[in-house]
Each structure stands twice: as C-alpha cells, then as structure tokens.
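re: that chain from earlier
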Amino acid sequence: MRFLSSGGDTLDGDPRAEIFLVLCYLSVIAIAVIHLRWTLTALRRNLAVVALIVLSFLSTLWAQSPDLVFRRAVAVAGTTLFAVVISIRLTSEEQLKLFRWATRIAAGLSICLLILAPHAAIASGADGDTVRGIFNHKNHLGAAMALGFLMEWYCPETKRKAKLLRNVSLVAYLVLLLSSNSMTSVVALGATLLVTYCFNFLHVRCKLPVPLLFTLVLVFAGVAMGVQDYATQMLGRSSDLTGRTELWSFTLNMIAKRPFLGYGLSGFWMGASDETIAIEKQLHWTPIYAHNGYLEILVSLGLVGLILFLVVVGTGIKRILSTTQLNSLSKGTWPIAFFTFFLVHNMGECTILLQNSLEWSLCVATVISSDALLLNSLAAAAERREASRITVAEYA
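^ sequence. v structure.
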C-alpha cells in the first residue's frame, strides 16, 4: 500500500513526489540522529533488517540498471528508518492510533474525490470500472482499506463518539474495499479474520500448543490450494488468477538463472533488465512486478534476501508469541492479525521491502515494537527523564 508513488510504476518516477518524499525522509533522519542511541540500539537488536538494507545497496554492483536500484535502495532505507523512528518514539498503541487516522483520512479523501471528481477516482481496466480513490491503482486502495478495517476491528472503543466513528470507518473501509475489486486484499482480509479467530479460540481458550496450530495452518493451506480453481471462479476470477500463474512461471525461470543474489532491488521489471523484454513478448502485457512478494524478493535479492526476510518476520512472530498478552484483543491479536495479512497479501501482491510502503513500515515497526527488552529499556529511560523533570521543578 502506497499513499504516494515515487517510481513504483515507472522507471523515472514523479519528480514532485520524489521531492516531497526526500523532505519527509530528511525529517526522519533528523529525528533518528537526535535519538541516535536508541536508533542504533533498535538496529543492533534487528540485524536482519540492517542486512536487508545493506544487501539492497550492494545489489547495485550486479544490477543492469544500477542507478535505478540505488534510488530504490535509498527509498527502502528511508521507509525502514521511518519504522525504526516511530518504534522508538511511540508505543504500540500510539503507533496504531497514528496509522488508524492515516487510513481514515485516506478513506475520507477517496470518498470526497469519488463524489467531486469521479473520473479521477475511477479507473477503467480489463475488469471494468473500478474505484482507486486517491491512490494510483485499485489494488493500493484495496490494501489500504483492508488494513484500515483490521486496525478498527482490533481496536475496540468504549466512548460513544469513538464507537460511532469506528463503526462509520468500518463501513467506509468495507465499501471502498469491495468497490476497488481488489480480490487479493479481500481474500487476505477474510483469511486474516479467520486465522486470528481460530488462534484465539484454539490457543487462548483451548490451550492448543503453537506447533500444533502451525500444523493445522499448513493443512488449511493445502486444502485451500486444492480448491483454488473453485474459489477463484466464485470470486469472479479466472482459474489462472488473472494471468498471475503464467507470470509466476516465467518469473521462476528467471530466478533460476540468478538464484542467490537476484537482479538487484526492483532491478528486473519494465526494461530494467534485458530478460524482461522476452517476458513481455510472451505475456503480451507489461508487468511492473511479480504479483507475489516472495517471488519478487527472490528475483530482486535472491535466496539471500528471502532468508533475511524470513528471519525478520520469524523474529517478530517469536517475540509476539512469547511476550504479548494474548488475552487482550487490542494488544495481543493485532500484531498476529497484521502479520497474517502481510504474509497472505504478499501471495498476490508485492509489499516486502517495497519503497514508500506503509505496509513494509508497519512490518518493521511491529517487529521492533515486539522486542520486550528494548521496550523495557525505553520505558525505564522515559521514567528517568520524568523523574529528573520533577526534581528540577521542585528545586525551581
């Protein structure tokens, strides 16, 4: 999900968006420098994240379009640093509140644009007219609304006005999500709600151990693959997932040529490498990414990049399962829900290590914010600062 596009769909990008993003990332760097100690601590305790960024920059050495790869690596580094900064400056609850308002504003602006300038908010394509709102693609709107729905769903309110706003937001998200006709986001949202419900019921209430739950998830995934054709037809899609399976087949062939380090971060599609020309001729359309986050990171950074990503996510999930109070929906199930959505969503879209992506920032922020040792250190430091302020005030 991207609120702004800086070259995600083209090689050159939009200069106005790039200038705005540069200013944003300079602000993020300034905050990181001011809180350098905690920034370095967070990075030191998440070395797989650092390694992914370093690998992204190093991939300029073997990419066919090194300038493009370098620009994308800088943008990914800024997106990741943003996640680090909000993790050390905001609590998990404050982060969720911030992102909730961001998606609420995006939904509100999309509705306003749809009413005032429907020609700008509706895109025509092979599937007919679909709503894209303020985003540059319907799938970006769908992802944003699905994430917004999950944020609202797992943040119950007690006050009357807050409850009303939450319910209105849920309806708006659902309407915009369905209007976007982004079936990947719809499926990801449905799978997330099902998985988190089963997790709470089977693990929290029935006390089933986590290894057994993972086994059940694998069985469920196998059954889902077995009924893929029927499910896609029920959703109004062809059994080849709107051309994705053919694209994935070609992508796997390209990955086999450079299996370990790939073609460079976002350095493969749309003419960035010579191999894309052959793919476009065979597909008769121009893909801008692999439409699968796991294949995309393989084609970009190879097995090394995929392993580092799995370490990042595995670390986050391990921290959540070991430290989170799972009997609290707002504090315990939201991280599980996010990781479920993130992992399922990337089966049909690409947000892993994506520049200017709120979804990637949320992933890194969730991993860092699940570190109990880091959070305890930050809380202790905040208490010491507060105590020193009280002492100074008393003497004054």
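The radius of gyration is 21 Å.
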